[in-house]
Specification:
The chain is an alpha+beta fold and 101 residues long. Helices cover 18% and strands 41% of the residues. It is built from one helix and seven strands. The protein has one helix at residues 4-21, and strands at residues 24-30, 35-42, 52-56, 62-67, 73-77, 84-88, 94-98. It has a four-stranded antiparallel sheet with strand order 4-3-6-7, with no helix packed on it. Strands 1-2-5 form a three-stranded antiparallel sheet, with no helix packed on it. The longest helix is centred in the N-terminal third of the chain and has 18 residues, at 4-21. The chain starts with a helix and ends with a strand. The model is unreliable at 9-20 (pLDDT under 50).
Length: 101
């Protein structure tokens, strides 16, 4: 019995580790010069390199589309109307935030 419990715990940790290993995080920085910088990173510490970035209006219309560089960063012009910044690395790996005005 005492060997079964550690084995079960280990199995659960190994089974759930992949689900936690690739959480996508995004920061949006106002550069105070009319631009913003979008930075993406995974929970593993790896940058979200070459990942699609979209600026969308309130109805989901794409206002601007680009990709992050090898460091997971992209600088774009701020929008005058309210918008959402979306970092999209594929199903299950999407982050979004309200864009600064």
């Amino acid at each position: 019995m005492t060997r079964i419990v550690p084995a079960i715990v280990l199995a659960v940790l190994l089974w759930t580790a992949p689900a936690m290993a690739h959480t996508l995080f995004m920061t949006v920085t106002d550069n105070n010069d009319g631009t913003i910088t979008v930075t993406g990173m995974y929970s593993t510490g790896a940058p979200a390199a070459y990942t699609e970035v979209r600026l969308e209006d309130a109805l989901g219309k794409v206002l601007l589309k680009g990709k992050t560089d090898e460091f997971g960063e992209l600088a774009v012009d701020k929008q005058s109307a309210p918008y959402t910044v979306v970092l999209d690395a594929g199903p299950g790996h999407v982050a979004s935030a309200e864009g600064p005005q």
